[in-house]
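Sample 3 of the quickstart, ligand glycylglycylglycine:
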Amino acid sequence: MKRIAVIPGDGIGKEVMDATMHVLEKLNLPFSYSFYEAGDAAQEKYGKALPDETLEACKKSDAVLFGAAGETAADVIVRLRQELNTFANIRPAKALRGIKCLYPGLNIVVVRENTECLYRGFEFEFDGVSEAVRIITRQASERIARYAFELARREGRKKVTALHKANVMKKTCGLFRDVCREIAVEYSDIEFNDYYIDAACMYLVMDPFRFDVIVTTNMFGDIVSDLAAGLVGGLGLAPSANVGEKHAIFEPVHGAAFDIAGKGIANPTAMILTACMMLRHFGYLDEAKKVEEAVERTLESGKVTPDLGGNLTTMEFANEVASLLD
Ligand code: GGG
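Result:
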């Protein structure tokens, strides 16, 4: 039995999680789900965005399924990734069937270092001056670079591109770039190159097919994965997984989307595909494929949520997907 700690979180988190649970329940897998609080509401209620009970449950679980974080993202999801040492954030950007997007056929994946950089939380403020400390270590850079190359091999991908800004941040980005270049030598079967992050953003918009696997530091990875999601139809369709040696957290790339929260119109595709990443993590490859196929067939049918031009509610979309699993 796999123990899944479920955290719906803030904003649309609860709606997309309910929809996803409905799909998962159809699979009858040996999973036990326990629900926990975290996020802005938990901060209000308990004075702690990540209550101790939730953190302990996540540590004891086989996986965490996470909905969305709002204003407390740094104290909830960023902290959880650090506490559980899920050092790699895998964010695929794949054009799905039935989706009108800028780049049909695109299939790239962003591998984001998850434990350090400016998101480490070392921020200080004194007398009108605010500062943030950027931590980049050889150890974490080696670990994420190796992860990216191994992922490329595992998925039959051809190329890894490291993104950095080593001409300006000579010490931190310089170390990251140098380590990626060193690790690349161990993987002569995979093509490697590196770009400055600013140039890479232009290439991503103008010619994204030059990318396959992107590996980068924490904050650049956060930004560039939203950009990549935009190339294939938007955040409503973008899943992600945070993985480490012992733990895994599965969360869509999108945030709480407070502007549409509570209206029942959020697109649950990203959350459902995130659950598919969890299924693959546990070795349920056929089940993952089946759900992904059901999602794409539903998208092709045009029975979709308003963000994609349809008029289905979040749960109606999930019902359509679930009905294809019978
Ligand atoms: N980019 C969409 C979004 O708002 N995601 C939630 C968020 O900011 N998470 C923090 C993170 O991914 O580091």
